[in-house]
Write a structure and sequence with these properties.
The protein is of the alpha+beta class and about 230 residues long. It folds into 3 domains: about 45 residues, OB fold (Dihydrolipoamide Acetyltransferase, E2P) (Beta Barrel); about 80 residues, OB fold (Dihydrolipoamide Acetyltransferase, E2P), CATH 2.40.50.140; about 80 residues, Ribosomal Protein S8, Chain: A, domain 1 (2-Layer Sandwich). It contains 4 helices and 16 strands. The strands form 4 sheets. Strands 8, 9, 10, 11, 12 and 13 form a 6-stranded antiparallel sheet that branches. Strands 1-6-7-3 form a 4-stranded mixed sheet, with no helix packed on it. Strands 2-5-4 form a 3-stranded antiparallel sheet, with no helix packed on it. Helix 2 runs parallel beside helix 4 and helix 3 packs antiparallel against helix 4.
């Protein structure tokens, strides 16, 4: 059995009675099969399948919102809402040199802190690598984060970011939409932004959705035209 192997429902993951079926799996005689589409994972003798449906699948150059999950000696483990956590190396955190003998990595990014980062690579084991260095990439110290179904993000962004721009213009709210389904909001009419985001999430498949969203924004917007360039 290969770790992090893509597997389909009903497919045999492993043979023999030495392994135990975990989440997303079931025993069929002497074999363990997958009950869903996902990626295999083994911890000791426990076999699991991490589902892909509804999850964000990272791609190189995607901009995402991540949450620091663990601080290690020379890197950070970052939750980007993908099947596997991302890795940020010490040279990808800030522009200045970090001396591992003197600097505490937690002083740059600590557990629970949130960042806008970019995926630089996804290796053969499907581990994403991220950086917080570059235009627009940074730690988020204020505002609020909401979760959106990753599959609905393209509809929320709109063609040439038209939907996001329309929402910003009518609410005065600063926004960043991560391609992993996390959205950062700050200021303006955040309640209205969340309302229209949830509508887009529910009705992404419908024709004329942009016109419906515009009507809501025009009727309920507060007219706040704050700087929403971020």
């Amino acid at each position: 059995m290969k770790e992090k192997n893509l597997i389909t429902p009903g497919e045999v993951i492993v043979e023999g009675m030495d392994y135990l079926p975990g989440e997303g799996t079931y025993r069929d005689g002497s074999v363990i099969r997958s009950s869903l589409l996902g990626l295999t994972q083994t911890r000791d003798r426990l076999v699991k399948v991490i589902p892909l449906s509804g999850r964000y699948i990272p791609k190189r150059d995607d901009h995402v919102i991540g949450v620091v999950k663990e601080v290690r000696y020379s890197n950070w483990i970052v939750d980007i809402r993908a099947p596997y956590d991302a890795l940020m190396m010490v040279g990808e955190a800030v522009d200045r040199f970090i001396d591992l003998k003197k600097d505490k990595l937690s002083s740059f990014f600590n557990i629970g802190e949130v960042m806008i980062c970019k995926i630089t690579n996804v290796d053969e084991s499907m581990t994403p690598m991220v950086t917080a260095r570059g235009p627009g990439l940074r730690k988020l110290t204020d505002g609020r984060i909401i979760d959106v179904q990753p599959s609905k993000i393209p509809r929320l962004i709109g063609k040439n970011a038209s939907m996001v721009k329309m929402i910003k213009d009518h609410t005065g709210t600063k926004m960043f939409v991560g391609q992993n389904g996390k959205v950062w909001l700050q200021g303006g009419n955040e309640a209205l932004v969340i309302k229209v985001i949830r509508k887009i999430e529910r009705d992404a498949h419908k024709q004329g959705l942009t016109d419906e969203i515009l009507k809501i924004l025009e009727s309920e917007g507060n007219g706040n035209k704050a700087d929403v360039s971020d």
